[in-house]
């Protein structure tokens, strides 16, 4: 399973959607994920990939992690994994 597939699976689970319903240009808001769902998604991603996501739930706009779309989240995780390697 690729990073992309795993992230889509985590987001789909939070959104209570089928992974096939998740588009790369979808925003979390489009998918019906609220701020609590976002935090849960970030925790699940950190656990799944053994990384620390630079995201502050209290100040999402001040975070270095782009959560504007599914594609940007995947890109951010790929970058974090590459830096870790």
From TrEMBL:
<protein>
    <recommendedName>
        <fullName>Acyl carrier protein AcpXL</fullName>
    </recommendedName>
</protein>
<keyword id="KW-0276">Fatty acid metabolism</keyword>
<dbReference type="GO" id="GO:0009245">
    <property type="term" value="P:lipid A biosynthetic process"/>
</dbReference>
<comment type="pathway">
    <text>Glycolipid biosynthesis; KDO(2)-lipid A biosynthesis.</text>
</comment>
<dbReference type="Pfam" id="PF00550">
    <property type="entry name" value="PP-binding"/>
</dbReference>
<dbReference type="InterPro" id="IPR009081">
    <property type="entry name" value="PP-bd_ACP"/>
</dbReference>
<keyword id="KW-0443">Lipid metabolism</keyword>
<keyword id="KW-0444">Lipid biosynthesis</keyword>
<dbReference type="GO" id="GO:0000035">
    <property type="term" value="F:acyl binding"/>
</dbReference>
<dbReference type="InterPro" id="IPR036736">
    <property type="entry name" value="ACP-like_sf"/>
</dbReference>
<dbReference type="GO" id="GO:0016020">
    <property type="term" value="C:membrane"/>
</dbReference>
<dbReference type="InterPro" id="IPR006162">
    <property type="entry name" value="Ppantetheine_attach_site"/>
</dbReference>
<dbReference type="GO" id="GO:0005829">
    <property type="term" value="C:cytosol"/>
</dbReference>
<keyword id="KW-0596">Phosphopantetheine</keyword>
<keyword id="KW-0597">Phosphoprotein</keyword>
<keyword id="KW-0275">Fatty acid biosynthesis</keyword>
<dbReference type="InterPro" id="IPR003231">
    <property type="entry name" value="ACP"/>
</dbReference>
<feature type="domain" description="Carrier">
    <location>
        <begin position="1"/>
        <end position="81"/>
    </location>
</feature>
<dbReference type="GO" id="GO:0000036">
    <property type="term" value="F:acyl carrier activity"/>
</dbReference>
């Amino acid at each position: 399973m690729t990073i992309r597939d795993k992230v889509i699976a985590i987001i789909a689970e939070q959104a209570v959607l089928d992974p096939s319903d998740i588009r790369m240009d979808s925003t979390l808001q489009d998918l019906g994920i609220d701020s609590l769902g976002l935090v849960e998604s970030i925790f699940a991603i950190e656990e799944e990939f053994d990384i620390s996501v630079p995201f502050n739930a209290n100040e999402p706009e001040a975070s270095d992690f782009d959560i504007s779309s599914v594609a940007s989240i995947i890109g951010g995780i790929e970058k974090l994994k590459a830096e870790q390697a």
